[in-house]
């Protein structure tokens, strides 16, 4: 692949419903769309970074800066890139900034698959035709509202229900949901809102037959998580704490989790996601694909990686219409009876619509190879 041009767009979509987690409420989704132009095709990637550094340390502005001033020059420093796995290696000298790296790498994966005329799923080694999907429900004002939202998505057929918790809206809330829905596959996500002082909260949650508890403790911890896992039966799933294959290996060795949520952006790309997937498969650790309120482009990447065999548990890749009034891809992502069919078109398999991209673009910049190579 020879990259001739890269286009960055800062975009914003309005969420149908505000999304509240233990670290804040989002009403809009600002993100960066990456277009990588080869000789015959365009590869698309989404930078799943958020406006504020609340989930991780990156922001839309830092990711743009890192891409424009450091990562794109590294790509242009190479005449050709023969395989997208190479990108991870090229970006290695730049520390962290995983969402910025993943956005460019994802676009290059899409371009690679399009040039080979195969689906991204196949390029990654996926072997499923359909994937199971769950839903992530934000913190609601009242428990009655939560119960009604849970009911809505259970009726739509979602394969598991994830409920965001925070101190004060945890045990009694989930107990009431469990009373109304005794048999659904249900889990909680704390987004790092607790410490080991809250162990009693987790002993109570342990009685609710949850599939897992996601990231209960600090975003940078794997030691306290191991202590917590040793006193509860419910599997702990790590999200924020895992940035690489090495992190995953250490967490598994320590017993800090029994499940891993793989987010392509958080771990720096599809190549690293695959590595974590393969390592977890060998070690009997199921994985699932987390979401970052992606537009259709990021969602398409999530769907492709979920087609790999060890993505055993339903992911957070819900339908486009769950988030957006209109998505930027055609067709939109459709979930039927909790399932998504892996698309058959080459690359990500959904087509970004130029007119919709333009409609939701706040700022754009084109970066040409010749600008950098003199
Ligand atoms: O539906 C989705 O995209 C998942 C939403 C979600 O849970 C989430 C959204 C933004 C930031 C962090 C998280 C998370 O998984 O912790
Ligand atoms: Mg999470």
From TrEMBL:
Source organism: Cytobacillus horneckiae
Enzyme Commission number(s) of this protein: 4.2.1.113
Ranges for domain Mandelate racemase/muconate lactonizing enzyme C-terminal: 143-235
UniProt KW keywords: Lyase, Magnesium, Menaquinone biosynthesis, Metal-binding
Residues engaged in binding Mg(2+): 189, 214, 239
Xref: PANTHER family: O-SUCCINYLBENZOATE SYNTHASE, O-SUCCINYLBENZOATE SYNTHASE-RELATED
Gene Ontology biological process terms from the UniProt entry: menaquinone biosynthetic process
Pathway assigned in UniProt: Quinol/quinone metabolism; 1,4-dihydroxy-2-naphthoate biosynthesis; 1,4-dihydroxy-2-naphthoate from chorismate: step 4/7; Quinol/quinone metabolism; menaquinone biosynthesis
Pfam families from the UniProt entry: MR_MLE_C, MR_MLE_N
Residues annotated as catalytic: 164, 263
Catalyzed reaction equations: (1R,6R)-6-hydroxy-2-succinyl-cyclohexa-2,4-diene-1-carboxylate = 2-succinylbenzoate + H2O
Protein name: o-succinylbenzoate synthase
Task performed by this protein: Converts 2-succinyl-6-hydroxy-2,4-cyclohexadiene-1-carboxylate (SHCHC) to 2-succinylbenzoate (OSB).
One of the record's GO molecular function terms: magnesium ion binding
Family: Belongs to the mandelate racemase/muconate lactonizing enzyme family. MenC type 2 subfamily.
């Amino acid at each position: 692949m020879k990259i001739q041009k890269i286009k960055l767009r800062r975009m914003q979509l309005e969420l149908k419903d505000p999304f509240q987690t233990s670290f804040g409420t989002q009403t809009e989704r600002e993100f960066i769309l990456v277009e990588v132009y080869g000789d015959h095709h365009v590869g698309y990637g989404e930078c799943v970074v958020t406006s504020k550094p609340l989930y991780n340390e990156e922001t839309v502005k830092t990711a743009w800066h890192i891409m424009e001033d450091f990562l794109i020059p590294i790509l242009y420093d190479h005449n050709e890139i023969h395989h997208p796995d190479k990108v991870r290696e090229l970006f290695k000298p730049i520390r962290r900034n995983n969402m910025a790296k993943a956005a460019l790498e994802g676009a290059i994966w899409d371009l690679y698959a399009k040039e080979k005329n195969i689906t991204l799923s196949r390029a990654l080694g996926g072997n499923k035709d359909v994937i199971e999907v769950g839903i992530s429900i934000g913190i609601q004002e009242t428990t009655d509202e939560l119960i009604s939202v849970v009911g809505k998505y259970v009726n739509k057929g979602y394969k598991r229900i994830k409920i965001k918790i925070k101190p004060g809206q945890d045990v009694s809330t989930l107990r009431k949901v469990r009373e109304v829905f005794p048999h659904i596959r249900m889990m909680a996500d704390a987004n790092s809102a607790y410490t080991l002082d809250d162990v009693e909260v987790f002993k109570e949650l342990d009685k609710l037959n949850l599939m897992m508890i996601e990231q209960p403790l600090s975003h940078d911890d794997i030691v306290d998580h191991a202590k917590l896992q040793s006193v509860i039966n419910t599997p702990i799933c790590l999200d924020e704490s895992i940035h690489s294959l090495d992190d995953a290996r250490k967490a598994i060795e320590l017993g800090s989790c029994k499940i891993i949520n793989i987010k392509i952006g958080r771990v720096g790309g599809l190549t690293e996601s695959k590595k974590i997937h393969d390592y977890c498969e060998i070690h009997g650790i199921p994985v699932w694909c987390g979401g970052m309120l992606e537009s259709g482009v990021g969602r398409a990447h999530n769907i492709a990686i979920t087609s790999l065999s060890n993505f055993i548990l339903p992911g957070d890749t819900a339908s486009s219409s769950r988030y957006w009034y209109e998505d930027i891809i055609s067709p939109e992502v459709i979930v039927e009876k909790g399932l998504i069919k892996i698309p058959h078109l080459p690359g990500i398999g959904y087509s970004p619509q130029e007119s919709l991209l333009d409609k939701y673009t706040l700022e754009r910049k084109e970066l040409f190879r010749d600008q950098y190579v003199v």
